Amino acid sequence: MRVILKEDVAHLGNMGDIVKVADGYGRNYLLPQGLAELATEERANAFAHQKAMIEHKKAKLHKEAEALQEKINGIAITLARAAVKDETRIHGSVTNRDIVEALAHQGLDIDKRKVDLPQPIRELGDHDVQIRLMGDVVAVVKVTVVAE
Q: What pLDDT is recorded for position 131?
């Protein structure tokens, strides 16, 4: 299935790209979420005319992402968790949802899918967590996990 991306999709492409995806992925995720539309011949031709508007939208979103990056960089979050007997590990873990909630308490609305946390945090201490706001715009939050 060929689709035209309406927004940037991680590991797939950027807004305005025409990409080939698996039928199920396009039908069950991309199309219902409004992230893409079918790439028919008519839509591809009409889309070529809309490309300038999309480039303008991309530039605006990039500028907003850079402004948000300035706000996020340097923010330090402290999360308290119950520690195991050896005082280095914690019961449970700190996930991207916990980080997003802590940022929300500071007035920042971030989507949990933008938090780049390959594995949940399971140890006490300081951890640098990347937040991918848009393509090449990445902010870093310092997350400190302390014992309760």
A: 92
CA 6 to chain CA mean position, Å: 16
Domains in the chain with CATH codes: 2-60 (3.40.5.10), 73-147 (3.10.430.100)
Residues 143, 127 contacting (CB under 8 angstroms): yes
CA dist., res. 119 & res. 100, Å (int): 15
pTM of the model: 0.67
pLDDT beneath 50: ranges in the chain: none
For the record, the structure tokens of 60 come out as 């605006």
Other beta carbons within 10 Å of 148:
9
8 Å CB contact between 46 and 110 = no
Model pLDDT, residue 128 = 92
Helices (H), 1-142: 23-25, 31-33, 41-72, 96-105
Residue entry with tokens 């940022």: 103
Estimate to the nearest angstrom the gap between the alpha carbon of 75 and the chain centroid: 17
**Tokens representing 115?**
């938090």
